[in-house]
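Tokens for chain A. Residues wanted.
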């Protein structure tokens, strides 16, 4: 296992624990991880890796900005995936984000089925999509009951591990 994968694994673990306990991902943990990544890339004289990392951060930002603006994902989750994008680059972070969305969707579906809220949620989603398509505005997702939300580091962690261990790759 590479040094980069060890750093990512450590970041995943710390972010998952703090998200589960406090529903927060701390900037100081992300900054430490980012600095470690820079040190590893510079010590290997890998400036191409730094450019690739910056592209990965930018792609993660682009792909997550709309869900963030709609309150569908938290700022800590976005920053975590941006840091991860720095480590793994642009195409791998796209894979991680796809995996994360798939895992998050499956978990959300299970929660909604368990809580008997699937139909209500699909109706709200239909209104959201209709308004977005035909009124050309991005609407904020309705705030839902606290017991129907989940720490998004759960699907991020699973989606990341699926990619790291080469179980699910799309691109």
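Reply:
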């Amino acid at each position: 296992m590479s040094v980069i994968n060890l750093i990512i694994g450590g970041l995943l673990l710390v972010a998952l624990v703090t998200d589960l306990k406090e529903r927060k991902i701390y900037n100081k943990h992300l900054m430490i991880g980012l600095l470690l990544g820079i040190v590893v890339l510079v010590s290997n004289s890998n400036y191409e890796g730094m450019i690739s990392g910056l592209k990965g951060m930018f792609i993660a930002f682009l792909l997550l900005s709309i869900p963030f603006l709609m309150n569908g994902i938290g700022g800590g989750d976005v920053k975590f995936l941006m840091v991860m994008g720095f480590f793994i680059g642009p195409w791998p972070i796209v894979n991680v984000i796809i995996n994360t969305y798939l895992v998050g969707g499956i978990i959300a579906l299970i929660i909604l089925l368990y809580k008997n809220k699937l139909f209500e949620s699909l109706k709200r989603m239909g209104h959201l999509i209709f308004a977005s398509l035909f009124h050309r505005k991005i609407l904020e997702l309705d705030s839902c009951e606290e017991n129907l939300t989940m720490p998004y580091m759960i699907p991020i962690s699973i989606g990341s591990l699926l990619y790291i261990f080469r179980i699910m790759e799309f691109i």
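The chain has a mean pLDDT of 87. DSSP finds seven helices and no strands in the chain.
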